[in-house]
Structures are given as C-alpha cells and as structure tokens.
Amino acid sequence: MRIPRIYHPESLTVGTEVYLSDDAANHVGRVLRMNNGQRLQLFDGSNQVFEAELAETSKKAVKVHVLGSKLSDCESPLDLHLGQVMSRGAKMEFTIQKSVELGVNTITPLLSERCGVKLDAERLDKKLQQWKKIVISACEQCGRNRIPEIRPVMSLETWCAENDNSLKLNLHPRASQSINTLPLPVEKVRLLIGPEGGLSAEEIEMTTNHQFTDILLGSRILRTETTALTAITALQVRFGDLG
C-alpha cells in the first residue's frame, strides 16, 4: 500500500505529536480507514517531508507522532504565475489541479470582458476556498512540498498592470513568436490565458501597453483549459524542469 501524503497547515517538529486538520482526519480515518501504528507522510509547506505514525484515531480526531524529516525539493527553477480568466465549473477546477501538477507557483483567477462566470462576492469566496483545497490535494498527489498560492479574483487590467519583473506572455493567434523562440535564460514568467471567447481587441491592446509579449502555440485553436496546460508544459520544457 502506498504511504499516504497529507498536508498539515502548521509547522511540524520532529518528536512531537499533532492532531491532523478536520479534512485530513476525515480522509485518514473514514476514507482510508487507517489504524494506530500505520505510517504516513506529512508536509507543511516548508519543502520538507515528515515521516509520521498514527498514535490515536477516533471519529472526532486523529493524532500522529512525527518521527523524522528530510528536505525534498521538487520545485521547478521556473517561477511561473498563471493568470487565468475564469472558466465555468469543472473546467476551472481542472486547470487549477493540472497547473499545480505541472509546477505553477501562483494562480490568479481573472475577470475579463468576455468572462462567462458571473458570481457575487459570497459565491466567489466559496469558489476560492474550494480552489485552495484543490491546490492542496494536487500537491498531496504529485509530491510537491510547497503549496502554490491561489490569489483572490481580480480584474484582468489590474493583474496586467502589476509589475514583478517577470516575462509577460499572452497567447495570440497572429503572434510572430513562439515559446521556443523566446531568448534564454528566463527565470520568471507571468502567463495570461484568456476566456473561452478570447480577449477583446481593447484588452489585447491593453496587454501590449503593459509590455506583454504575444506568443503563438500552433495552428490549431485550443480550448481555454487545453491552452493553459499546453503553454505551461511548453514553458517548463523550455525554461523549467520538464525534459
């Protein structure tokens, strides 16, 4: 049986006993039905992996004994920030999950002129909490020991105006450059993925004014979720740790 990997939201110390979070306790106790003495791995976002043993399990709580730790760095050298105009339902969740597996460090959900998602503040907050759980679950599955940041929803123009010394990229069907023609080296990228209907002409002009470089993925038109993952993969092959 594969040893389960569980995220713990507080700093861990070898030799101590800690109670798992409610979600983790439910997964370990009710879903996996693990018993006292069984082993699991914990990570707390510090880029370490902690070996642990179940010390106490009940319907209300799960306590573990932290036995040891080791540094386990599987982060890409490419600092990649994805700005994704929100897509509907499962498409957005899929994009978030897979982009974490592919090594994205930061995700910002965006609102644009042709964004098909219309939610009030309360429902947006609930979505954000759900997306954070998806990020954690993806890290548990793929072996990442740092948790990527998923930021609150913001407008496309506000996000584009931010300056963090990244190479800013925007996909455009009439671009003259591709990812393979971008000059080396690149350590930090801000990648913009538009909505299913594409960015408006005014929005494309706005990205140019904010020093975004238009790039082309290929001759076929891809869905927004396919575009994001294809571009992330190409960037990791060119500048990151996929080979």
Q: What's the SSE blueprint?
A:
Layout: E1 5-7, E2 17-19, H1 22-31, E3 39-43, E4 48-57, E5 62-71, E6 79-85, H2 90-101, E7 106-111, H3 121-142, E8 149-150, E9 154-155, H4 156-161, E10 167-171, E11 177-178, E12 188-193, H5 201-209, E13 213-216, H6 224-239
Parallel strand pairs: 1-3, 6-7, 6-12, 7-8, 7-9, 10-12, 10-13, 11-13
Antiparallel strand pairs: 2-5, 3-4, 4-5
Helix pairs in contact: 2-3, 2-6
Describe the structure.
With 243 residues, the chain is α/β, with parallel strands linked by helices. The chain has six helices and 13 strands. The protein has helices spanning 22-31, 90-101, 121-142, 156-161, 201-209, 224-239; strands at 5-7, 17-19, 39-43, 48-57, 62-71, 79-85, 106-111, 149-150, 154-155, 167-171, 177-178, 188-193, 213-216. The strands form two sheets. Strands 6, 7, 8, 9, 10, 11, 12 and 13 form an eight-stranded parallel sheet that branches. A hairpin with a 4-residue loop joins strand 3 and strand 4 (48-57). The two termini are 30 Å apart. The model has no long low-confidence stretch (mean pLDDT 94).
